[in-house]
Amino acid sequence: MIKRTLVYILFLLVTSISFSQELSYKTVKNISYYPDETVGLTEYQRAQCRLDIYYPEGKKDVPVIVWFHGGGLTGGGKEIPQALKNEGYCIVGVGYRLSPKVKAATCIDDATAAVAWAFKNITDYNGDPDSIFVSGHSAGGYLALMAVMDKGRLAKYDIDANDVAGLVPFSGHTITHFTIRSERGIPGEQPIIDKFAPLYFVRNDAPPTLLITGDRELEMLGRFEENAYFYRMMKVAGQEHITQYEMQGYGHNMTHPAFPLLIKFIQEHK
C-alpha cells in the first residue's frame, strides 16, 4: 500500500532503453480467438471476440501480457497500451462481448477463452507460454481476476490457471461486478460476493498477484477497500506472493503511473 512509482520509472528507463532499441516490433490485428467451428458462434461474437498482438521480431520466448480493456463491461474496445510497447514483451489486446447485447457474465467467458488462446498459440508470435501475465484496467482488471482465480474456467480448456505467471489487475472489482449486479436489480452500493466475485475464489496457490488501485479517497466507490480485503483474505489463506499498491493522488484512471509497476513485476517474475 505504498507508492514507489518514481523509483520504478527511473529503474526501467535505465535498464530497458538499450534493449528496446535493438528490437523491431510487429502488430497483427483482429485475430479471432474462438474457432470457426465453435458451436453456436454468432455474428456479434465473431466480430467482438478478436485480439491484436504486438510483439518483437527476431527474439523468441518473450514474456506475454494479456491486456483487457475497461469500460464497465458495457463499453470500450481492445487496446495495446502505449506504455507497454518497446519493452521487449508480446502484448495481447483483447476484445470481448459487451452488455446489454449479452449478459455481463459472458464477458468472463470471453476473457477466459482469450487467455486459453494465448497459452495455445502465443509461440507463433514469439511469446513464451510459460511466462503469461494477465492484466487489465477496471472491468478489464475484474476479467483478469475472474479468468484466473476461478480455476474451473481455464480447466475447461485443459489449462491449469496456476500456470499463469502473474496476475496484475488495475482497479478491478474483487466483489461481483456492478454491471452483473445491475442486471439483477441490485444497487451499486450493495456489495455481493458470489461465483462472479474474485473474492469467492480466494486460495493460497494462486499465481503471484499485484493489486493496484487509485487513492482510496479518489477511487470509484469502495474499489480500494475491495482490493484491500481481497489482499487480506489471500494472505489469511496462505498466499505469500501478493502485494497491493495504492496510487496516492490518483483516481480510478490511474493506468499511466501504474504501468511501470506492471513492468517491474514482470521483470521480477518472468
Say what the CATH topology is. Answer: Rossmann fold
Task: Kindly state the number of beta strands.
Answer: 8
Distance between the termini: 23 Å
What number is the mean pLDDT?
93
| Count of structural domains | 1
Encode the helix/strand succession as letters.
HEHEEEHEHHEHEHEH
CATH superfamily: Alpha/Beta hydrolase fold, catalytic domain
Protein name: Alpha/beta hydrolase fold
GO molecular function, one term: hydrolase activity
Pfam families: BD-FAE (PF20434)
Domain BD-FAE-like: 51-216
Task: Summarize the SSE layout with pairings.
Elements: H1 5-21, E1 24-32, H2 43-48, E2 50-57, E3 62-68, E4 90-94, H3 105-121, E5 127-137, H4 139-149, H5 151-155, E6 166-170, H6 178-183, E7 209-214, H7 223-237, E8 242-247, H8 255-269
Parallel strand pairs: 3-4, 3-5, 5-6, 6-7, 7-8
Antiparallel strand pairs: 1-2, 2-4
Task: Characterize the structure shown.
With 270 residues, the protein is of the alpha/beta class. It has a single domain (5-35, 42-269), classed as Alpha/Beta hydrolase fold, catalytic domain (Rossmann fold). The chain has 8 helices and 8 strands, in the order H-E-H-E-E-E-H-E-H-H-E-H-E-H-E-H. Helix 6 links the parallel strand 6 (166-170) and strand 7 (209-214). Helix 1 (5-21) crosses helix 8 and helix 3 packs across helix 4. 45% of the residues are buried. This is Alpha/beta hydrolase fold. GO terms for molecular function: hydrolase activity. InterPro entries: AB_hydrolase_fold, BD-FAE-like_dom, GDXG_lipolytic_enzyme.
